[in-house]
């Protein structure tokens, strides 16, 4: 699908970006004394988003950088300098810049994919993905940002006296919101990596027991109201896997369980080495490792199980929020390591994810001979 601006030369696209951002900033400058600089930030973000729908990626990135500089220089006090003395304003500018870049890059990627579509049905599906992405950006990124800014406002307030204990709680809230924001951005970036096909697993010896407890430590706040049981044999061998991808797989599955199972639910993590199971497609008949993560929650609607690994898919009766990316990233990272993943409902209630990898193994007693 071609747009009106597609034939424009790259030089003209740069001029359009600078002129668009400059025009909006100029209009806002006349009302600077009455208009909050946060509103100016939102308006500039809309301009970058609109430009990303029509122009190439480099001019869009330029507009994001240019709008961030204008926001800092003309609208954040002290005016006409790049210095920022307020922590809140510094955080606002950084988050504005990050969101503008992510929004611009992802919107551009969606537009490029849309140009390649030739039939109406595929175009409709692409727009659904685009709408889901915008919903994700507006809710999942805005929520932790609002929490961070609200906590900072309270801490910096000169009219409210805050005890050290309450300050500690606010700092904890800022940390939790920052981790949530980082998790959402990581999911968006990981999906972009999967879509572009740039993921190349770095295979090395991996201690799954150590990896699981590392993930549990990162998720201790989210899992504090759940019963987590880890069933890993002390004699479990090392497996040759990509540590980073496998860590993200387990993290996303456990985070998903923490969010969509009731308080008090039990989550079971089990790792097995099955020397009697072989993969038919593996010419070397390498024996796989099997990771199962199960819970005793409400499970998944049977008619939706086949869809849960689709990009941006959220269960029809699920709670508000979520990007619908976590499980699709899990599947992508599993398949990048030639593994398989299966989701089933347990007869006694709850669900179970079964992940199998055709990984080389090495008993720990052999490490000294490696």
Automatic annotation (TrEMBL):
Keyword Kinase: yes
PROSITE patterns the record matches: HIS_KIN
Molecular function terms from GO: ATP binding; phosphorelay sensor kinase activity
Matching CDD domains: HATPase, HisKA
Keyword Protein biosynthesis set for record: no
GO cellular component: plasma membrane
Record localization: Membrane
Domain Histidine kinase: 136-361
Main location, first listed in the record: membrane
Entry membrane topology: Multi-pass membrane protein
Bilayer-crossing regions: 12-30, 42-70, 90-106
SUPFAM superfamilies recorded: ATPase domain of HSP90 chaperone/DNA topoisomerase II/histidine kinase (SSF55874), Homodimeric domain of signal transducing histidine kinase (SSF47384)
Entry-linked Pfam families: DUF4118 (PF13493), HATPase_c (PF02518), HisKA (PF00512)
Gene3D superfamilies registered for this protein in UniProt: 1.10.287.130, Backbone structure of the membrane domain of e. Coli histidine kinase receptor kdpd, Histidine kinase-like ATPase, C-terminal domain
Tree of life domain: Bacteria
Keywords in alphabetical order: ATP-binding, Kinase, Membrane, Nucleotide-binding, Phosphoprotein, Transferase, Transmembrane, Transmembrane helix, Two-component regulatory system
Protein name: histidine kinase
Lineage: Bacteria, Pseudomonadati, Bacteroidota, Flavobacteriia, Flavobacteriales
